[in-house]
Structure formats: structure tokens, C-alpha cells
Task: inverse folding
């Protein structure tokens, strides 16, 4: 993986749970692929610096061919290689309360991006399928996130076209498209991950991470 980009605030129902306005353009941030990505069965370390470790299930887009600058959303299907499941692990204290409000440290600690269990190619799971599939996250068997990608504010085609205005996307680059409601940060009471917790991120048509 070269670039690992993420889209924030990209589910309408996730915006509603926070009582914030729906974005008018994609909110883009990044993780570091070199050390964030771990396998689908690997453990995620609870870094000693965080007390607010959160879970986020996300649909991942895997770029299959170089995306030219200023690609139109109508042409995006030519460049998407497939889709996978991403767990966008987040240290909310470092994302939202420390480091001047910059998201990078809270999103990019080692192991904070389990991916898998497979990449499903667009032959079997199209962009249209990606816009109408169930998505959920369970912690210790309890379903805490449950939604559908129909709730996406910006679809895969819009996201890739938007990013292409600023940079060239290349084969193997990954984009996490955002998380639905139910994350620990916005629950009442808040719910943080603890050592020993089992997190299952599931997207219909792709599988369970």
C-alpha cells in the first residue's frame, strides 16, 4: 500500500448522532500504511498513551489502476480494483483533545488499521453494490454499529474523483470511506476498547474482519 487515505464524517446517520451538519465536500485525512496496517487476525495494541481507544468499521476501496488527475466520477469505475473491510482504530483523546486538534497521531499509531479478510474485486462486488450493502461492528459479540452504505454522504465515485483533484492515486492505494454511527466516542455512556476485547467488523458481500 502506498497512500492510505480516510474520509471523515461520511455517513449521514453518523453526522446525526453527533448533531453536526453534513459535510459539503469530503473530509480527507490519512494513516501511515507502513505501520498502521495489520492482518485480519492480528491483535491491536492498546497504546499506553491512550485511555480512549475506539472502534470504527469502514468500507475500504482498493485502487487497481493509476487514477489520472481530475478524473470524473463517471470514469472512476475504470480504476477501482476492489473492496475490503477496514477497522479504523482511533485514539480519541489524541485525535480530539490533544496535539492541537490534529487527527494524525490519534489515527496513526502502530497497528491502527487492520484490513481484510479479503479484497473482493469489482467483478463480484461493483461500485453500485458498494453503495447499498450492510455494514456493522460487534465488540465481544454485541452489535454496536449497524447501518447501510446507502447512508454514505459521498459515494466511492465522488470520493475518488475528489481526491484526484489533488493527487495521483496509484495501484494499491487504499481509501477508507468513513464509519456509521455507534462508535464508542458518541455513545452514552462512552464505550472504549479494553485489552482482551474482540472486535468484528463486517460488510455484507465482503466478509468479517
Result:
Amino acid at each position: 500500500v502506498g497512500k492510505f487515505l480516510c474520509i471523515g464524517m461520511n455517513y449521514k446517520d453518523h453526522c446525526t448522532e453527533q448533531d453536526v451538519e453534513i459535510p459539503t465536500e469530503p473530509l480527507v485525512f490519512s494513516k501511515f500504511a507502513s505501520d498502521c496496517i495489520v492482518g485480519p487476525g492480528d491483535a491491536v495494541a492498546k497504546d499506553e498513551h491512550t485511555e480512549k481507544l475506539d472502534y470504527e468499521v469502514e468500507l475500504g476501496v482498493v485502487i487497481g489502476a493509476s487514477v489520472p488527475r481530475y478524473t470524473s466520477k463517471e470514469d472512476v469505475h475504470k480504476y477501482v480494483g476492489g473492496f475490503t473491510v477496514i477497522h479504523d482504530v482511533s485514539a480519541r483523546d489524541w485525535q480530539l483533545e490533544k496535539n492541537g486538534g490534529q487527527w494524525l497521531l490519534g489515527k496513526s499509531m502502530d497497528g491502527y488499521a487492520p484490513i481484510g479478510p479479503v479484497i473482493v474485486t469489482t467483478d463480484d462486488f461493483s461500485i453500485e453494490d458498494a453503495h447499498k450493502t450492510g455494514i456493522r461492528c460487534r465488540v465481544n459479540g454485541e452489535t454496536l454499529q449497524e447501518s447501510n452504505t446507502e447512508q454514505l454522504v459521498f459515494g466511492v465515485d465522488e470520493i475518488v474523483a475528489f481526491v484526484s483533484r489533488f493527487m495521483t492515486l496509484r495501484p494499491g492505494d487504499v481509501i477508507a470511506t468513513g464509519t456509521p454511527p455507534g462508535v464508542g466516542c458518541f455513545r452514552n455512556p462512552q464505550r472504549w476498547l479494553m485489552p482482551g476485547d474482540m472486535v468484528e467488523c463486517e460488510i455484507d458481500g465482503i466478509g468479517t474482519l
Remarks:
- The longest strand covers residues 113-121.
